[in-house]
Fold these 3 entries.
Entry 1:
Amino acid sequence: MRIVTSIKEGQEELGIVINDRFYRCSAIDQTLPKNMSDFLKGGEKAMSKLQEFERALVRGTIERPYHPLQETQLIAPVPYPASFRDAYAFRQHVETSRRNRGLEMIPEFDKFPVFYFSNHQAIQGPGPIHCMPLHLDQLDFELEIAIVINKPGINIPAAKADEYIAGFMILNDFSARKLQMEEMKLSLGPAKGKDFATAIGPWLVTKDELEPYKIQPAEGHIGNCYDLDMTCKVNGRQVSAGNFASMHWTFAEIIERVSYGVQIFPGDVIGSGTVGTGCFLELNGTALIANPNHKDQWLNLGDEIELEITALGKLSNSIALHHS
């Protein structure tokens, strides 16, 4: 099931997408939640109820009014997360980025999954990303996957953690690298380099949709793992390619770490971290080693960025100037 949040005349509405049709939850059944926050708080009961209606619509046993998807304005499927944590779970990205800075691979990476908190009030969906001038100095994309929680818990073992995941989304963790590098010299952050925009979407894909892509986790790891191709195009040219299966730490293991001594809540969003080759910072560093005359590439005003992940769709954004 693909769950979305749309906006029309300032009104946000929860809905589902079936093929090229958008169905508002309020038009499917008046007892369904009207927004994503309430839906996630409803947990498995709300999920099962909406899935029953979705199956009936697919089979044609019920009919409901719909709008063409191309005429529907989608925003972030989870527009108001309870929190946003971003992990650092792909070994290739970590190892290559450290190598490009002349550093050895850090052994702690294999001991536990690490994450940081970012700004859950700066979540955006498809569409323009409005940047201040300082953001445009070495502006970068980051190709990631995110999950959202729909069940509260604490001290959750990895063996049970997948039960807490409502679904998956594409995530683009926009990064102002010059700001980020300057502030992290003070051993704190990232803050201003990351807090202005994180895009998720175009929809929340439930776990059942990913069953055909499920594979065994790597030896010594616990949790669901999926074979999903991940790519990024900038202005129509592919710049990045990776696979969700290469994620070193599973989301189940990340949830175990996140929930250690801490309650997690419905609406908490957790990102995977950047897939290998999934940002210009890594790509530029690798290219510079191969060619000392390499000219770095960054995002610029007007650029179109398209992240595509198997079964999760395409998330399209553009870079615009913030008019304050």
Entry 2:
Amino acid sequence: MKITGVEAVPYRIPMRKPLRFASGEVHHIEHVLLRISTDDGLVGCADIPPRPYTYGETKESVVGIVNGVFSDALIGRDPLDRSLIHSRLHRTIGNQTAKGGVDIALWDLIGKALNTPVHRLLGGFADSLEVSHMLGFAPTEAVIEEAQRFTETYGVRSFKIKVGRRPVALDVDLVAALRDELGPDALLYLDANRGWTATEAAQVLEATAGLDLRFFEEPDDADEILGRRRLVAASPIPIVADESAPNLGAAAREIHTGGASALSIKTARTGFTESQKILSFAEALGLDVLMGNQIDTQLGSTATVTFGAAFEHSSRWPAELSNFLDMADDLIAEPIEISDGRVHAPTVPGVGTIIDEDKLARYRID
């Protein structure tokens, strides 16, 4: 089996409502669909979500690197030779989500060639993951209504709360109101997207001490080295590295230098191969891991559940799998179902995504 073609298709889909958070806001998604084909007639797919404000990638840069340098590294290679391919990709610095997409598409090809779900090839630990829903900036009443609707409609009982506003009392009051409305059984955690200083984040930790929060993701910019390390050392709950740990090396650095005490894994930026290395690193050190959301479409969310449900350690906490519901449409032909607060891992060969070609034709922008 040899790779014969690489295609990167940019597309745009509007959001049903804007998603707002400390590092920006999203009114529509501009992603890149990656398809890698072989001489056996197989096609491996992945969704690549450029995030200029996080990783510096744009849809134009992703298309350019995939159709250029990465295509040269892929054409003529056997998808099973993943390590060789990765060594060629890593000659190019950065391009984190483009590399992650290539890895997922390779795994999709391998699963299809072996007629086996990638979820099982990776480990097959659980058949589903519990869902955590991400709540963006909005008035308190609207945030509470959204959380209650997800509980009543989908059975979701875990919520990541986007914070990072000033004065910090705005978000402290929001979190208190959510805890009061959702009750003690709801799992709540914070994500400030680097919106506060370490001093402000410490104030928030003190003010919310009685609200049973489980995690605090990127409370401040990790480049505030001394402040961040004081914050992590004093925090009663795990401080999660997300943007500050976009790859294995950065994750190891943040943990070993005291910049974080837990990790967010996003398959959109580290594929399955590097994500497994990060997961093993965290498990060896006894660190909690959250399966994060890159404002993923259903294609990306399917990849997340494929990986997250494959291992015991990544199955322990709810995964961020539901924000595709904020999007007006999707490219996937068979939509994800959230039932009793869970999403099941695909049982078909490959990663489990099938593209609706009519929708791709409607939304592509090349």
Entry 3:
Amino acid sequence: MDTRKLSYFVKIVDSGSITKAAAALHVAQPALSQQVSALETDLKQRLLIRSKQGVEPTAAGHTLYRHAQTILRLVEQARQDVAASGAAPSGRVSIAIAPYSMASSLTPQIIREVGRRYPDIVVHLTEIFGGVLSEAIKNGRLDMALIYEPGKIRGVQFTTMIVEDLHLVTHEDVDVAHGRSTVTLEEASSLGLFLPEKNHTLRQIIEKGLADQGLPLRLIGEVESVPSLVRLIRANLGATVLPKSAANALFPDENFKVLRIIEPALQSKIALCTPDHEPLSEAASAVLIIVKEMLQHRLITKYAADPSQA
């Protein structure tokens, strides 16, 4: 098995047709079919199902496709790293930032600092939810992510960076807390909430906290858009639950109440997620250091302003 056969196989699966793949690769169709047959002989498995509509990978083909992507990516990364050895890091680095989190407020700083230190690195930023994160990291579509820590997931590793108490965020006219800076979980449960969908770790923390206390979840709607969430709370159509840093970043206006939930307190963790099965590229490693520095600075600033959180 060699990388050329693997690259041909990946192109065939992506194209859904040996004919289309042959045209894209500028390889004769019979020669391409022979390469697939050689792979099937080598692996003693049928890899493709052929029909008039094209080709589809078998179960074994899907497995090979996934591994082939990783192998080809590592080979290309090795070429790039060797070629760039001794030079400043360069290339594309992809980072996912959790919506509904303080981490999203770091994006301008990340872009600014990476640009200052490593002008040849292009940072690709996206927002993503935990339900699809593990596959994106394992398949190499993402280099790293700052998300709410969901627990152990095979193929990725989490480094806890920030642990925060959750807060209820409401319009100032909502009749709750009565001058207090805290609200009990029972009081919070009496309000209608806008939350992310079920695969979001924050939603799971809130649901578990309520269920453990035998309290209902009064869900008004599932909102994935942060700007929409802000508009809904500003219109006094419901409340939401966030860590304080995220609430301060997303709801800076004075007409919002941000109340720490107690009895019991609920906590969330922001974690740095990276693959556990392959090393990061030189460029991604450089960006990772910058992200860790920013999170550490944010922690120091936070605790200096509020020592009780340390």
